[in-house]
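Lecture 7 notes: from sequence to structure.
We start with the chain below.
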Amino acid sequence: MLIPGKAVKVSIYLTDGASHHGESVCSSILNFLFNSGVAGATALKGFAGFGSDHHLHTTTSLFLADRLPVKIEFIETREKADELMPKLIELARTGMIEVQETTVVKAAG
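Predicted structure tokens for the same chain:
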């Protein structure tokens, strides 16, 4: 259970449609976080974006609409995030992972 105090926010940037062993990368990561006891996680899907390939993907382009940006975020203790990081790096594949120091003022629940 997450409590008020120092924590880290982990953001994972992915491409919608990426798969890992026949399952979407997003689903694989969310399932891993859930089964690992993370307090909570959110997946957000963007309507436009570009990555390291510098190709703009938007919902207005039928050809590029299947590669929209996805961001997964969760807040946890530094120790828990460090414990999960090797598997997250493996699952994220070509995605980017960012970690920021944060402070939980009020925990959910």
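Points to note: The chain has two helices and eight strands. The chain has a mean pLDDT of 88.
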